[in-house]
């Protein structure tokens, strides 16, 4: 659920939505890491000025913790 939301949201922001991909890695029973891979110019858009966009995304995802009790870490990486 969270991965699909994040993928769709990132594709709406991105200039090259076909290059956006998300890797989900389950660290343990209560922790999951989501990495957004995007074009170099789109990575900047996803982070936003002073990190405002990524912080807003993280705030929404923290709300998902109430439903499934998983903690999430979200990172953005650029692809060359």
Automatic annotation (TrEMBL):
Pfam families: KH_KhpA-B. CDD domains: KH-II_YlqC-like (cd22533). One of its GO terms (molecular function) is RNA binding. It comes from the Bacteria. This is KH domain RNA binding protein YlqC.
